Amino acid sequence: MRSDGSAQRSSPRVGVRRELAVLYGVAVLALIVVVVGAFLASRSVAEKQALQDAERMTTRMSKSVVGPLLADALRSQPPNLAEVDKVVHNRIADGYLTEVTVWDRTGRVVYADEAHLIGEVVDVPTEVLAAIDLNTVSSAFEDHPEAEVGEPVGTVPERFVEVYVPISLNGQKLAFEAYYDYETVQQLSDYLLRQIAPLVIVPLIILQLVQLPIGASLARRLRRHETERAKLLERTLSISDHERMRIAADLHDGPIQDLAGVGYAIGAISPGVPAHHQPLVTTVQETLYSAIQSLRVLMVDLYPPDLTSSQLPDIIRGLASPLQAHGVEVRATIEPPPPDLDLDVTTTLYRVARETLSNVGEHAQATRVTIDLRSVKDGSEGPAKSICLRIADNGTGIDPSRVDRRAEGHLGLRLLHDRVANLRGSMLIAPQASGGTVVQVTLPLA
Known about the structure:
By secondary structure, the chain is α+β, with helices and mostly antiparallel strands. The protein has helices spanning 16-75, 82-93, 126-134, 183-269, 278-302, 312-325, 343-364, 412-422, and strands spanning 8-9, 97-103, 109-112, 138-142, 160-169, 172-181, 329-334, 368-376, 386-393, 426-431, 437-444. A hairpin with a 5-residue loop joins strand 2 (97-103) and strand 3 (109-112).
């Protein structure tokens, strides 16, 4: 089989509508990706901004508001925390601050806005030690306050902004912890999204509105080019057929008739030829007969004079004759096609058989070829819906890397592949597992 074939199955070309659908789908997908990206970016910016604001607010509150009051309150015995509680609860009532806790490095709660937590000792958070020992200000998002024992009780925000800052009260280094409502972060994120989205999405929409008509125009141009290409391919095949037909007719009306006339003349004069020249006359007659037969085979191979559905089986068998003459075993199972088989279908089957068997003889180095031509039904009953031609050999196979060599002037099966697609059929060119190549064409009868 010729090395410019390839394992592939033909099908009708992708329509322009599908190409446009893909283009529009990609545009919508890009828009969705940008919207999601803008949302995630605004959320990330909002969270970073919230953490920075919470750190500044907590630092200012611990050093300028709560810290001095708490230092004075802790000097009395017992500590008088009423003024501290008033200031903290007022700030909590504003809706952003939700909880305040002051820790020492042992994990003991020195102060909390909830009085029952004061004096509780829990596992000291690492952020508390970092604030006390390293003067580190840290912030993060949490869903459970550190000082809570067990699960939170009552209605609490789903998430918190948690901040730890160092604080010094009466010479003792402590950690000041504050929790803020995450809802404010969500509101900031939504605000940023409303600000960012128009700046990102509107230019993208404008870009899509500009490029989609361009894509549609290119798709229409592609459709015109595909139509012109199909016409050129068909014209190429038609010109080839016309040239073959002309050469076959010239052979029939010229050399074949002339040689036949010479043969008849020699037969007419042979009785009068001396006996010692009779072997020479016989040899000349046999040579002429062999030459006439060879020319007739060549004529049929170029283009059969009667390419109809009734003659198609014999024509395909005739195409395999040169292979048999060179010792290739040919196994043919050919059913008579429907008598009303369309001429385009008949011509295409002939073209495929001619090209395939020619490739087998020239390139495949095969010793066996099987030819199968039959009508195909969709079910067990009813008329046939399609006709299938299958040619398989046990040769060297095909090289998939050389599928299309039209640029080198090799049309071959590539043109037939497109011709079959134009007739809404399918063409398979593939290697066989046992070696060799199979070419299978299925064409609709209707």
